[in-house]
Amino acid sequence: MTTAVFPGSFDPPTYGHLNIIERASRLFDSIDVVVSVNPDKQYLFSDSERVEMLKELTSKYKNVSVHKCGTLIVDYCSKVGANVLLRGIRNINDFSYEFDLSLVNRSLNNRIETLFVPTEQRYFLIRSSSIKELARFGGDISGMVPPVVAEAIKAKYQK
Are 16 and 126 a contacting pair, CB within 8 Å? Predict the structure, then answer.
């Protein structure tokens, strides 16, 4: 059985993230979507909020589970017996960053392979930072995030 791990901040979860999850769910026996918890980062949503949104959004996939992790992702992979890390890439900048990170992860655990999943063209411009900025100024984010996420973002900025 092959378990793949798809880590990220998912702040917020986007249609691009869900597209990668859906495609990966057809390729692997099991997918762990892992919400990164970094106390040095400032998130719009708490780790629990991000986990709950992703659980709701991925509930239709029987081989997808959602977890959170505050350790190195390679340590998480070792703990659950996964040997594949999935990373979505939109452009050459993403690739450059993710490639360097894959080398670091490989030096920490050479049994873990990183697979890059290029985004579909329709999700090319979706960036979490852009979504939050658009929402903060009342822009339409409905084409970038599912309705449950759009409502949660709207609620955050109405406080």
Answer: yes
Asked if residue 95 has pLDDT above 80, the reply is yes
113: amino acid identity, one letter = E
User: For the whole prediction, is pTM greater than 0.70?
Assistant: yes
Active-site residue, selected from the candidate residues 26, 41, 60, 62: 41
**94 vs 11, 17, 34, 100, 121, CA distance in Å?**
17, 14, 19, 10, 15
Catalytic status, residue 90: yes
- Among residues 67, 90, 127, 132, the one annotated as catalytic is 90
Catalytic, 17? Answer: yes
Q: Which of 17, 36, 87, 102 is catalytic?
A: 17
Active site residue 128: yes
**66, 43, 25, 18: which is closest to 152 by C-alpha?**
43
pLDDT one-digit tens code per residue, 2-37:
999 999 999 999 999 999 999 999 999 999 999 999
Q: Is 59 in contact with 121 (CB distance < 8 Å)?
A: no
